[in-house]
Amino acid sequence: MPYAEVSVNSPAAGRSAYSYELPAGLTVRPGQAVLVPFGPRVLQGIVVEVSETPRFDDTRQLSGIIDPPLCLTPQQLTVGMWISRHYLAPLFPSLALWLPPGFERSAESVFTRSGLDIGEIPLSDLESNFLATLDTRVPTDQKTLEKRFGKVAAQKAIRHLLGHGLIERRYRLQAIKVKPRLEKIAHLRIDTEKAQQAAAGLLKRSPKQSAVLRFLANSRGRLSVTEIRREFGEVNAILSALVNKKLIEISMEESRRNPRLPAAVELPMAHTLTPAQSAAVSVVTAGIDEAKGEAFLLHGVTGSGKTEVYLHAANYALKQGKQVVVLVPEISLTHQIIERFTARFPGRVAVLHSKLSLGERFDQWRGIAEGDYDIVIGPRSALFAPFTNPGLIVIDEEHEWAYKQQDTPPLYHAREVARRLALETGAALLLGSATPDIETYNKAERGEYRLLELPDRLTPHPSAPLPPVTLIDMRDELKSGNLSIFSRKLKAEMESALKNGEQVILFFNRRGGATFIQCRDCGEVLKCRHCRLPLGFHPVENRLVCHHCNAQYRVPTVCPVCKGSRIKFIGLGTQKLEEETKKEFSGARVLRWDSDAARGKDSGYQIFDDFRAGKADILIGTQVVARGLDLPRVGLVGVINADTALNLPDFRAGERTFQLLLQVAGRAGRGEFPGRVVVQSYQPSHYAIAAAVAHDFKTFYQKELEYRKILGYPPFNKLAVLTVQHLNEADGLQLAHDLKKTLELERDSTGVSGIEFIGPAPAFIPRRRGKYRWQVIVKGRNIVEFLSKTNLSSSIGVDIDPLGLD
């Protein structure tokens, strides 16, 4: 008898698959989406294996196949199971990364009358009415009953009636969240020439019918009713008359919800490759042909033409009948790269990201699955597009930490999953960056990745150097009496740039108006009641905002502790910087680009388009303006404070600072104006800042690698962060101590060597959403194998390969 091992869509299922007996005549295969009983419910599941022997003695019968049928490819199934193992993540969410948008549905309670006689059972009027509402065959869902009788009353009635056996409860999957959109389409039943003749015959007695028929004939004989209505107003009676005359027919057809894509643009550079670009393309295309899943690191200075290498490699993969995945760090950066790809490959590019509506994501996913597109672009989730034959996976700005999932399990890193997917499918993996991740570059040095170099900048001026950087010591500015946000040098350079018609980018990696709010009488700093972290002031909304849980508060007029009225706004954010910039440069047009300004679906695109079109002179932004933007009119970049990330309790703080500074400096001098950069810092001698000012990646890499080796951090060891949360601070600490003792006993009893534990210590965000957070850090070479054997509680957060230790 065949059995299926199924990953079940339930938090209780964890990393396990469960054995189910297959009903007679039912055949399933690995990767198939199915329905299975789990506890009292029927839930979704994915088959991971089919065998003649169950892994568990106690089995139940599989309920059926989900309709329409859906099956992961063997490669997708293998990679999904690897994600679960490597990141110690629940199995179903790891496999569900490849499921279509809106596919996951939870079970809901439904009720029918049991048919049992009420007899002497005492019922209230509400319970009698409740029972009368139910049918013995057709079930009614609990939400409908709660809407009719009230949530509390309905739940009380359900408990009472269930207890006396008067009703029966079953479970079913909730309704499908998204379906193909259907639209009325009008078709000609005759050829266009005869339609024109018929329209002429109708002109005198039915001029509106004649006009609609002629409009349809002039539109190749097919139009949506919506388009016809847009032209003529209400047309139902007219269309019915034409149907009765057998001149047209109306049918319901699927209409795709396509996202708004940027218009295709002329590429700014000629398609002729430089010798370095040509060499890189040759190596990557050879990797596509070999189909061994080889990985390449394209290390090119900012403005060196990495995108052109991507385009040529993609063109080659498409000619071989293969598909292409292009990842960018975040949604805001899809705009520019989509422009480039749609210009080169019109009609072949799909987009997947979280700001699309559910319907748009569903239709894009289906279009990819059905072969309408062979290129997909988007942030990390685009990696899970339903391609069956990928030939090239591109990760642009591969060093960016946005490629790491940080909110809900599985906490995967797209770069590592892409590597695994490339090995399984044979696709070439192309990683591009001007400031590669330390671990990535180390892999290239060790031969695990193949290193490709683009050493020269490509601008309208041949052999243009990287923009010179002036480093300003802000301590000297303070000593000389300059208390402004702007150093004297930056102010002078901005005045000169604006006078010359150049655009300016000001980079400051902290949003909001003030860093924190403090009472000058008692010293109290206003904190989030859930996270106990300082609140940031946002003057545009006139609200206090927690940048960790996004809770919002009114701005108080008096201190909540001492009732004093001397409330002071301390620190700087992008909103405050915008205010000060407008005051200092009153004639300049200023735009701000941060997560507060770009909340809408297309608002980030609009800000970028407006600035590129010359509708603003100064662009103020957080790290989004440092990432891969090509703006040829930018002549000056100013870094307001280079130190914002430098002193965080994170071993990657220096690396992040270096990458951000070098990337934002690279936005200057990419077009007609020679670029220059002014960096303001209170720690100008720090090695990360000094190396960024000199555009010197190799020196920074060697220095950073030396520190990592001394401290035993990646790439010399692996890391994991285990997080315990509890409503009570002391209880949470005790749980964290117990966890560390359990881990130490496991290590010592099994004789595992090279595993260290740090902590427990409060997390960098010690309290989030009302819960205290304690962390134990695990460091060593084989930590995944070690932790997988320790049977960790599902309540413990596990982050393998964390971005940092904050």
Task: Characterise this structure.
This is Replication restart protein PriA. InterPro entries: DEAD/DEAH_box_helicase_dom (IPR011545), Helicase_ATP-bd (IPR014001), Helicase_C-like (IPR001650), P-loop_NTPase (IPR027417), PriA (IPR005259), PriA_3primeBD (IPR041222), PriA_3primeBD_sf (IPR042115), PriA_C (IPR041236). This protein has 806 residues and is α/β, with parallel strands linked by helices. It folds into 7 domains: 3-98, 3-Layer(aba) Sandwich (GIY-YIG endonuclease), CATH 3.40.1440.60; 107-173, Arc Repressor Mutant, subunit A, CATH 1.10.10; 182-254, no CATH class; 275-454, 3-Layer(aba) Sandwich (Rossmann fold); 469-512 and 573-708, P-loop containing nucleotide triphosphate hydrolases (Rossmann fold, 3-Layer(aba) Sandwich); 514-571, no CATH class; 718-800, 2-Layer Sandwich (Alpha-Beta Plaits). 33% of the residues lie in helices and 23% in strands. The chain contains 24 helices and 34 strands. Strands 15-16-14-17-18-13-19 form a 7-stranded parallel sheet, with helices on both faces. It has a 6-stranded mixed sheet with strand order 5-2-1-4-3-6. Strand 3 and strand 4 form a beta hairpin. Helix 7 packs across helix 9 (236-244). It is globular, with a radius of gyration of 31 Å.
